[in-house]
Amino acid sequence: MGQSLEWRPIMIRRGFCWLASVCAVAAFVAVPAARGQSEDSGARAAEKPKGDAASKKNGDESKSDKKEHLKPFPSGPREDEFKAVLGDKYKVRRTDHFCVLYDTEEDVVKEFISRLEKTYGAVHRFASQLDIKIRYPKEKLPVVFCHNFEEYKRRCKQIVGREVPQEAAGLYWREPFDFSIFYDMSEAQFIKEHAERARQLKEEAKNSKDPNDRKEKTRQAQFILNKIDAFQQDQNRSVVQHEVAHQLLFNFRVHSPGKANPQWFVEGLATQFEPPPGKMGAGFNVINQRRLRVVREKYKKELPDLREFVGDPGKGQPMLTDEGYALSWAIVNYLIKQKGKDLPKYVETLKHRKVGADASAEQDIADFEECFGKIDEKFKKKWQAFIKELPYRAQG
Predict the structure, then answer these.
(1) What is the mean pLDDT of the chain?
(2) Nearest one of 246, 249, 254, 267 to 310, comparing CA atoms
(3) Of the candidates 178, 118, 175, 108, which has an alpha carbon nearest to the alpha carbon of residue 145?
(4) Does 132 lie in the same domain as 30?
(5) 160 and 284, same structural domain?
């Protein structure tokens, strides 16, 4: 389609954080305590009790965890803040864990809302199964869903004070805003242009007197429509699940707001939740074929320098490349499957970093190696063997 939607401005290191210099709308700054930004803001702490490892792997939860997982978040002042800023044009739907403000058609928002709760379930299972402590938000998490890109662009500018390119189909804006915003991809200009081309081909086929020409033009039109449909489904699914995973992981305090969370870890975790949902919803146990494909193709002949990547995944840039996202996914997937028992220690290690302080490449590497072992040749070979053994569907 000629469009990349891998633009995800969730800046990790403080030096690259867009939001540090942004002035928020007064309503969003007036009540910071209500947003759960403080590590000790009164949010409920829940630690998964030790249990049978096999039952965890099968997705089972203790009764107390199940009850906490299903317990809805209450509505809170943030909903009123967003309603005041967005105006009467926006309707509100409340799920168990999200407050969705939208100006799209009802049939469009229905699938969108389902995607949010499935992602919630997947992220919660991930943290629970790996015994990572969860801090639950004090109120429903705000999500804005716009009917087209222009509205989405206008609202980002209004609330956050930033311009966004059309390729950014969805974003999670961190503190002090802490909300996700998306737009209906079917209304994107480049989607409309391709749909118009398909319509023209169908019209040309209808008016053609040559049977072979009619057949070929009809085939081309259907090919374009199929590509549009597949692209929309993939992007709507993966972008929503990726950005909402960010929102949940920060609000659950798997990542620590205001601290230097390693970029590879933040993006690597979010990419675990991009694949299509299975019976249990959007799942981190599903192999991300898109990311795996990039890793397989990029590193056929030469292994990446994993140690260097952990220290500086963006190579001095605030944004990861497509290869950077894929490699982040591959490293985190390996850690989850092979060193899952060490992940809670790593999460807690990062929480001890100072608020507002940047972390050097040396510190990122040291913290990684303290929890997961030296990133030496032995580590690299084990990682490589793991990636090679993952079930892989080659792109046809």
Answers:
(1) 80
(2) 267
(3) 108
(4) yes
(5) no
Kind and range of the H or E element at 146? strand 141-146
Q: Which domain holds residue 358?
A: 255-396
Please tell me the predicted confidence (pLDDT) of residue 249.
97
Model confidence pLDDT, tens digit, residues 142-159: 999 999 999 999 999 999
Number of domains in the chain: 2
Check if the beta carbon of residue 272 is closer than 8 Å to that of residue 288: yes
- Same domain membership, residue 389 and residue 261: yes
What is the distance between the alpha carbons of residues 175 and 284, in angstroms, rounded to a whole number?
A: 25
Cis peptide before 176 (omega within 30 of 0): yes
388/295 Cα distance (integer angstroms): 10
Q: Which DSSP letter does residue 284 get? A: T
Buried b (16+ CB within 10 A) or exposed e, 302-321: eebebbebbbbbbeeeebbe
Q: Is the pLDDT of residue 95 over 80?
A: yes
Of the residues 142, 158, 188, the one at which a domain ends: 188
Give the residue, 30 or 123, on which the prediction is more confident.
123
Rg (CA), the chain: 22
Q: Are residues 26 and 143 in the same domain?
A: yes
In a domain, 111, yes or no: yes
Domain for residue 264, yes or no?
A: yes
184 and 278 assigned to the same domain: no
Could you tell me where the DSSP H helices lie in the chain?
Answer: 26-29, 53-57, 63-70, 77-86, 106-129, 149-159, 189-207, 211-251, 263-270, 289-298, 306-311, 322-338, 343-351, 361-372, 377-389
Q: What residues contact residue 36 under an 8 Å CB cut-off, 6+ apart?
A: 43, 137, 138, 139, 178, 251
Total-model pTM: 0.77
> Which residues, in sequence order, are CB contacts of 200 under 8 Å at separation 6+?
none
Q: How confident is the model at residue 67 (pLDDT cuts 50, 70, 90)?
A: low
- pLDDT tens for 315-364 read 777 789 999 999 999 999 999 999 999 999 999 999 999 999 999 999 99
Distance CA 28, CA 244 (A): 20
Q: What are phi and psi of 278, to 5 degrees?
A: -100, -155
